[in-house]
Amino acid sequence: MTEKTGTFVVTHAEADSVVVQDVDSAQVHTLTGNDGLEVNDVLEATLAPEPPLEVSWTLIDVADRRSVELVDSDLEPTQHSKSLAADAEMGELCQHERAGRGEIHVFRVPGDRVDDAARDVLEDDETIARAARLEAVRVEVRRDADAGVLSVRYLPS
Question: Nearest 5 degrees, angle CA 69-CA 74-CA 79?
Answer without folding.
Answer: 105
